[in-house]
Design brief:
- The protein has 181 residues and is of the alpha+beta class.
- It has two domains: 84 residues, Hemagglutinin Ectodomain, Chain B, CATH 3.90.20.20; 56 residues, Nucleotide Exchange Factor Grpe, Chain A, domain 2.
- The chain is built from three helices and six strands.
- Strand 4 and strand 5 form a beta hairpin.
C-alpha cells in the first residue's frame, strides 16, 4: 500500500503546474469594529505625537534659558574683575589730587595696569606680539606701509598702533600695525 500512496503523491506533484496555493479561511470583517479600532489607534498616535512635540518644545525653551543664564554668569565674572580694577583706578585718581610724588603715581598706575592684564590672562586672553615681527595677515591688520632703508625691516612690523589679542588661540582683535616696505 505504501507504494500506491507514493505513486499517487508523485502523480499529483507532476500534474500540478506552478506554486501550490494554500487557502486559509478568513473570518468576515466587521467594518464597525475595524473603523473604531483604527480611529482609536489614530487618536492614540496623535496624542503621543502632540505630547512628544510639546516635550521637545519645552526642552528647546529650557536649553535656551540655560544658555542665557550661562552667558549672564560668564559675563558676571569678567564684570566683577573689571569692577575691582575700576575701584583701583578711583583710588588712584583720588591720590593724584593729593600726591606730589610723580614716581609714586606712575608706580600706582603700573600696578593697576598689571592687575588688569592678569585678570584678562586668567580668562584665556593673550596679547599678540607685533613690533619687530614679520607681518602676518592672520594676526595683524596693516594700517599703513612706510618705506624703510634697512632691507631687513621690509615686511616687518615697524610700529604697533593698537594691540591685538587672542583668546584660546583664536584672534579676537587684530593688532593694528605699520609695516615696512
Amino acid at each position: 500500500m505504501e507504494d500506491n500512496e507514493k505513486t499517487n503523491i508523485e502523480e499529483q506533484e507532476t500534474t500540478q503546474e506552478g506554486p501550490v496555493e494554500i487557502e486559509t479561511p478568513q473570518a468576515p470583517l466587521d467594518s464597525d469594529v475595524t473603523e473604531n479600532s483604527l480611529e482609536n489607534q489614530l487618536t492614540e498616535q496623535k496624542d503621543k505625537f502632540l505630547r512628544l512635540f510639546a516635550e521637545f518644545d519645552n526642552y528647546k525653551k529650557r536649553v535656551a534659558k540655560e544658555q542665557r543664564e550661562f552667558y549672564a554668569i560668564a559675563g558676571k565674572d569678567i564684570i566683577l574683575e573689571m569692577i575691582s580694577v575700576n575701584d583701583d583706578f578711583e583710588r588712584a585718581l583720588k591720590s593724584f589730587e593729593d600726591s606730589e610724588d610723580l614716581s609714586a603715581v606712575k608706580e600706582g598706575v603700573r600696578l593697576i595696569y598689571d592687575k588688569l592684564n592678569k585678570s584678562i590672562e586668567k580668562k584665556g586672553v593673550k596679547k599678540i606680539e607685533a613690533k619687530g615681527c614679520d607681518f602676518d595677515v592672520e594676526k595683524h591688520e596693516a594700517i599703513t606701509e612706510i618705506p624703510v632703508t634697512d632691507d631687513s625691516q621690509k615686511g616687518k612690523v615697524i610700529d604697533e598702533i593698537e594691540s591685538g589679542y587672542m583668546m584660546y588661540e583664536k584672534v579676537i582683535r587684530f593688532a593694528k600695525v605699520v609695516v615696512g616696505k
